[in-house]
């Protein structure tokens, strides 16, 4: 039997999960986001290319430009224009090997010293997440799972400290909703967190017609 914990500004403490634990907390959404992860960067395309090349070198990989070969896009990192920013996306693979993840996102955003965000979903657990970066430094990490999984809102302060609270309470406050509200549109919250990046749309995946670059990363042979 799973043990549940409530994590908020008062710390971490176990709670009893009754059968109707989630019944009073409704999610207002028309559809479920599929598995995906996406990195949004408010930076120039040439600088993004340079940062990706630097990152590839640090992890022992080489970069091949396959922009003119759409048949190779399913194994590449795609860069698409979205409003004032660029979105990095890769198609899910069967081997669960992803290049765009929380660690690489933080490093790439740091290399660029730009405003950025890493967001996505995990359908099996009902997870929705978003990390935001202020000039390359992470400032908020928000994860909310419907099933047992990561659920927290961590705020990273300029003085180097980090506070943690319940993700739903944090989302309601950021959206100027009453703390006692049983309603939360998590997708609308993600849009709120991404509002400063000048995106034309927030959606799972990217519009392939707006792809401006496709890069394939492969291990450097010894």
How many β-strands, per DSSP? Answer: 14
Estimated helix fraction: 10-25%
Specify the biggest β-sheet: 10 strands, antiparallel
| Rg on CA atoms, Å | 18 Å
Tell me, briefly, the overall form.
Answer: globular
Q: With helices defined by DSSP (H or I, 4 residues minimum), what is the helix count? A: 4
What's the rounded overall pLDDT mean?
Answer: 87
Strand content: 25-35%
**Structural class based on helices, strands and sheet pairing:** alpha+beta
Strand order of the largest sheet: 5-14-6-7-4-8-9-10-11-12
Which regions are unreliable across 5 or more consecutive residues at pLDDT < 50? 17-28
Question: Could you state the order of secondary-structure elements as H and E?
Answer: EEEEHEEEHEEEEEHEHE
End-to-end distance: 47 Å
Written overview of the protein:
By secondary structure, the protein is α+β, with helices and mostly antiparallel strands. The protein has helices at residues 45-58, 102-112, 167-174, 186-194; strands spanning 4-8, 11-15, 26-27, 36-41, 61-65, 77-82, 85-89, 116-122, 127-134, 137-144, 152-156, 162-165, 183-184, 211-219. Helices cover 19% and strands 35% of the residues. β9 and β10 (137-144) form a beta hairpin. α1 packs across α2. The longest helix has 14 residues, at 45-58. The model is unreliable at 17-28 (pLDDT under 50).
């Amino acid at each position: 039997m799973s043990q549940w914990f409530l994590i908020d500004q008062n710390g971490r403490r176990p709670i009893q999960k009754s059968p109707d634990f989630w019944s009073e907390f409704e999610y207002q959404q028309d559809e479920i986001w599929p598995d995906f992860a996406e990195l949004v960067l408010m930076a120039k395309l040439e600088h993004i290319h340079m940062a990706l090349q630097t990152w590839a070198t640090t992890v022992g990989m080489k970069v091949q430009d396959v922009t003119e070969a759409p048949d190779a896009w399913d194994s590449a990192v795609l860069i698409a224009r979205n409003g004032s920013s660029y979105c990095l996306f890769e198609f899910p693979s069967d081997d669960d090997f992803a290049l765009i993840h929380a660690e690489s996102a933080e490093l790439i955003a740091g290399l660029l010293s730009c405003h950025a965000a890493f967001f996505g979903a995990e359908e099996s657990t009902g997870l929705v997440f978003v990390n935001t970066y202020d000039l390359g430094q992470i400032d908020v990490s928000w994860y909310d799972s419907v099933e047992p999984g990561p659920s927290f809102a961590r705020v990273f302060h300029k003085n180097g400290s980090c506070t943690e609270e319940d993700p739903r309470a944090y989302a309601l406050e950021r959206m100027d909703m009453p703390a006692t509200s049983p309603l939360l549109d998590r997708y609308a919250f993600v849009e709120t967190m991404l509002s400063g990046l000048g995106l034309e749309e927030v959606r799972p995946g990217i519009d392939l017609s707006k792809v401006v670059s496709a890069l394939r990363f492969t291990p450097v042979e010894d």
